[in-house]
Amino acid sequence: ILFDFKQAVELKSKYEKLKHKYLIEFNRSVMEYSEAISQYNLQHPDSTLSMPIDYNSPQQLKILFYDIAKIPIGLYKKEPTGTGKNVVDAILHTKSLEKSPIFTIVQHLSLVKMYDKAIGTFIDKLTLNAKEHSGKIHCDFSLVATDTGRLASRNPNLQQVPSRLGDIRTMFVAGENRVFINCDFSKQEPCILASSCEDKKLVSVFEEGKDIYSAIASMMYPEFSYEECLEHNLDGTTNHDGKNRRSAAKKVVLSIMYSKGVKSLAEDIHVTPQRAQEIYDNVLTSYPDMAQWMKDKVDFAYKYGYVDNFFGRRRRLPSLLKDDFEFIFNVNLDERAQEYYKEQYLNRLKKVWKDSDIKSIIADAHAKGITIINNKKQKADDYRRIVNFCIQGGAAVVTKKAMLNIYNNARLRELGCRLILSIHDESMCSVPVDTAYECAKLIEKCSIDAGNDLAVKLSCDIAITKNWYGQEYTFNENHELVELKEV
User: Fold this and answer.
1) 133-153 burial string, b = 16+ CB within 10 Å, else e?
2) Helix, strand or coil, per DSSP, at residue 164
3) CA-CA to 137 of 20 to 30 Å: which in 116, 244, 349, 360?
């Protein structure tokens, strides 16, 4: 892919100014705690805390968060005293902290880190990479690096170029007299889910042309109609309440497809675990065939140690065939003694749930010459992979079939179309400006035809740009390219 060095220089200058601006705001907001910081340093002579705070120091941020600002330990349960992105997001979604100084501090901190990463990880590294390869980026793709079957990118990983900072992607250009045509599957994974479980109610949502997330939102919140859960009103204006309900429904669908627990769902949609359970149950009750399909897939995986997706791709999950704990006796004990010790240790292990307690019991057994292998975490991870593989693995197959259709289409080759990049469920092609209209139609058809085996018809969104995520173009009545904003 061609790289625009001039755009990279401009973006770096822009981001450095923004980073500097929010760093000043960050330091200013930290001053709210200046007295508390001074007291802390007096009481802790070996403290690493400095003024101004080093925003790149996890140790300093940890002291600021938990010792100075008194954020509750375990606000984000997976990282009880963490300072990373998940903890920052948890702080920003905690209403009780909204009026506290730490809330403002974290807002500025997240922006500083975002621009810092954009400069170092993307602008600087990609610029160097392009300089080494005559102005182009050449990444590697692997067909077999992921268990789900998705393509993996590396050296550099162009699938990780952030979309949130859309102008980062504008450093990639189609070239003179050429444009990018991005063909992005719309609601690809829900389509795979509906086709896999063959739930008639779920399939009918697609057949009736309804928005799947708004339809599920109306199931989650029975007091609201489908229309009240749409992102936009009939006049085209934004329906803010409906957008929020639809957004929550999208997270519920992701929770189902990724087999996330109810507690994680509650954190995602910012409700109590009890309310999250009610919402989750509402959806599964509304789509009983989907619920049964999920149960059947889980039962099959636990019986045979593998699972197949819609297209027959198989993923082996052998840990599901194992006991939670396996015992290896390194001392000479007869069978009766072995059974005695297994029973004793299993009874102890059943009564604890903390990792530290489990490790303590395993250490105690090890001292007696008994090795206990803990398979619980691996089994829990593989349980979450069962349904997820069926959906994500199916989506990966559809995307690859679409790429094959595009690559092997003789007419697209005649028109000068080049398949450039794959980003999960999106294919990017570079085409001449003069043939863009016909190419766009053929690329869309090739992509939709990749789902001909599915129970519901796929749909795609087409974006035409001269640089990735740049100004979008469309076609006028003469099939000529015009800027979309003019239309």
Assistant:
1) eeeebeeeeeeeeeebbbbeb
2) coil
3) 116
Q: Residues 149, 310: contact at Cβ < 8 Å?
A: no
Distance CA 303, CA 400 (A): 30
- The structure tokens 């006028």 sit at 476
The answer to whether residue 258 scores a pLDDT higher than 90 is: no
Mean of pLDDT values over 36-42: 92
Q: Which residue type sits at 346?
A: L
Q: How far apart are the first and last CA of the chain?
A: 29
Beta bridge partners of 481: 475
Token couple for 175 = 């070239």
pLDDT at 93: 85
Query: What is the Cα–Cα distance from 36 to 22, expressed in whole angstroms?
Result: 22
Report pTM.
0.84
CA dihedral 10, 11, 13, 14 (to 10 degrees): 120
Q: Cβ distance 152 to 141 under 8 Å? A: yes
Question: How far, in Å, CA of 107 to CA of 104, rounded?
Answer: 5
Report phi then psi at 70, rounded to 5.
60, 40
The pLDDT of 66-93, averaged and rounded, is 88
Amino acid identity of 365?
A: A
**DSSP codes joined into one string, 370-428:** EEEEE-HHHHHHHHHHHHHIIIIIHHHHHHHHHHHHHHH-HHHHHTT-EEEEEETTEEE
The yes-or-no verdict on residue 229 having pLDDT over 80 is yes
Question: Alpha-carbon distance 2 to 30, whole Å?
Answer: 42
Q: What is the percent of the chain where pLDDT is above 90?
A: 74
